[in-house]
Amino acid sequence: MSILDQFCPKCGKTTDNEGLCSECQVKSTKWFSCDKRAQSTHCPSCDAIKIGNTWTDSLKERSDLAPDLARSAVHLHPDVKKAVIDVTVVDMTVNRSRAYLVIRGQLYNKPVEEKCTVELVWHKEQCDRCNRISGSYYEGVVQVRADGRIPSKYEIQQASLIAQQVEDNLQAGGERLSFINDMNEIHDGLDIIIGSQHIGTLICKAIIAQLGGRYTTHPKLVGEKSGRQLFRITYALRIPRFQKQDVILSRGRYAEVDRVESNHIRVMDLADGSFRAVKDVDVERIIGNARNAIPAQVVFSDKDIIGILDPDTGHTIEFKKFAWMCARPGVHLNILRDGEQIVVVR
Ligand SMILES: [Zn+2]
Ligand SMILES: [Zn+2]
After folding, report:
1. Phi, psi (rounded to 5 degrees) for 200
2. What is the Cα–Cα distance from 203 to 80, expressed in whole angstroms?
3. Crossing angle between the packed helical segments 153-172 and 197-211, to the nearest 10 degrees
4. Which ligand is nearest to the CA of 26?
């Protein structure tokens, strides 16, 4: 024993500490506490989880959530180091589980271990999004229409697919209220009912990027909530009169639309295979779209003439052969009908 030895004022043992020895320090420290219950709130319709006041989408099952929920009930003294909490969960009923916890750590260089039990409460509550959807809440409508015609099946299908992709991206990015409430195909197009204005703008831009066209917005005041004016916006989207692969008649010649620009179209002439621009006003009519063409077999081909078997009548029809046509006997060419006339398309 030297003059430098220090004594614990509580138990009298020698110690390197100033004041209490480590053992007495551990004994006099309430190093952990454990709440009796921990509650998790989730939406029964979509499984979103509420943390604080914020809903988040989650793919986790109750069995994945339970250990962390149980651990959230434990509060450790800041001096506890290397804490490890082992959790065993027993499900009691649909909305109750019991978690048995073993808490281990180091406190003032002494190992410590305690046990506690936490009741896990599985609370169900409709989330903000499901609440809005079930209450038919919406902030706008994207009206997909076509200029001077009815959108094709293909365009309607594409538009709805694009809208769903936009929704998926926003939802994955955590924009929970940017949802599609409903989608209705009506006689002259598609109505997409949307939960936020942001998704409306993005849907319009994405559809236009793929199908062309333009959109205008028309807000309408629908009421007031906590001093804020509430608007519903109609996004009037017009896809162009022409679509890619439309076959048109212009100045007596058939041509297939290659690209749609704002006031003209670029076409491939179906007689000589050349490309040119045609103004909208110079289009006599649309005879169909090459996507809907039917195959017809080439039965013979010589220098200038090819013969095609009309699939409807079984008769052979002769055509002038053009350089762009692949016209070996046996191959199929795609044809459209314009009244009596058969038009070979690309
Ligand atoms: Zn002591
Ligand atoms: Zn929900």
Report:
1. -60, -50
2. 52
3. 140
4. 1
Burial annotation 273-289 (CB, 10 A radius, 16+ → b, else e)? eeeeebebeebeebbbb
314's torsion region: left (phi>0), alpha (psi -120 to 50) or beta?
left
Taking the whole predicted model, whether its pTM rises above 0.85 is answered as no
C-alpha 285 to ligand 1 mean position (Å): 100
Per-residue pLDDT at 5 exceeds 80? no
The rounded Å distance from CA 28 to ligand 1 centre is 10
Rounded-to-integer distance, Cα 325 and Cα 271, Å: 10
- What pLDDT digit, counting tens, does each position of 273-325 carry? 899 999 988 999 999 999 999 999 999 988 888 999 998 888 998 888 887 88
In this structure, which amino acid lies at residue 168?
D
Ligand index nearest the alpha carbon of residue 44: 2
CB under 5 Å of ion ligand 1: residues? 8, 10-11, 21, 24
* pLDDT digit string, tens, across residues 87-116: 999 999 999 999 999 999 998 888 999 999
